[in-house]
Specification:
Layout (H helix, E strand, L loop, with lengths): L20 E6 L5 H9 L3 E6 L3 H14 L4 E4 L3 H7 L5 E7 L17 H10 E11 L2 H12 L4 E3 L4 H5 L9 H8 L5 E7 L1
Parallel strand pairs: 1-2, 1-4, 2-3, 4-5
Antiparallel strand pairs: 5-7, 6-7
Helix pairs in contact: 1-2
Function: Catalyzes the formation of N(7)-methylguanine at position 46 (m7G46) in tRNA.
EC number: 2.1.1.33
InterPro entries: SAM-dependent_MTases_sf, tRNA_(Gua-N-7)_MeTrfase_Trmb, tRNA_methyltr_TrmB_bact
Length: 194
């Protein structure tokens, strides 16, 4: 439940046990990545946003099976959640394989926009990371252009291998396996809050 009257959430207070930091995953799909992170980082609170019930059900199954207590789920769009988060309240934000809305007339529906990146930068603490993965070259380029316009984010890649190599500790996702099976090569972009 979000606070009323434009109030702000207290992200660490969402979890039953104290957490060192909080991460957000927008559109967690089946929850494989989120559950893996929650298990590997028990001192971190993870918030996942996913509007599709099948993905929420799959993640709930993982939470139950693994006995995870450091996960909170929002089963609606992430935009309102971002607006309710305080400045510099998150250590990481993940957006993995979002819907690319490939047709030109649909692109305005893409989650990555100047406004959404400004909100992500606002909620990240200095040095916090925004990680984006896609198998659609056009969406990778779209994201790079908009991130370059966001003065608070810096792309961390130093060489080509940096955006072709999965993030450290990457467990992979079902969608990624499907994309690779279809011959599409994923891009892994990391931006730091400056």
């Amino acid at each position: 439940m979000l606070p009323e009257n434009d109030g702000r959430l207290d992200p660490p207070a969402l979890f039953p046990n104290p957490v060192d930091e909080v991460w957000l995953e927008i559109g967690f799909g089946g929850g494989e990545h989120l559950a893996d992170n929650a298990e590997k980082h028990p001192g971190t609170g993870l918030i996942g946003c996913e509007p599709f019930v099948n993905g929420v059900v799959k993640l709930l199954g993982e939470i139950d099976e693994r006995g995870l207590t450091n996960v909170r789920i929002r089963d609606e769009d992430a935009t309102q959640l971002l607006a309710a988060l305080p400045d510099a309240s998150l250590a990481r934000v993940y957006l993995l394989y979002p819907d690319p809305w490939p047709k030109r007339r649909q692109r305005k529906r893409r989650f990555v926009s100047d406004a959404s990146l400004a909100e992500i930068a606002r909620v990240l603490r200095p040095g916090g990371l925004f990680r984006f993965a896609t198998d659609i070259d056009d969406y990778a380029g779209w994201t790079l252009v908009r991130a370059a316009r966001c003065a608070s984010l810096r792309w961390t890649a130093a060489r080509a291998a940096d955006w072709l190599t999965p993030f450290p500790g990457w467990p992979g996702t079902r969608y990624e396996a499907k994309a690779k099976g279809a011959g599409r090569r994923p891009s892994y972009l990391t931006f730091e809050r400056i």
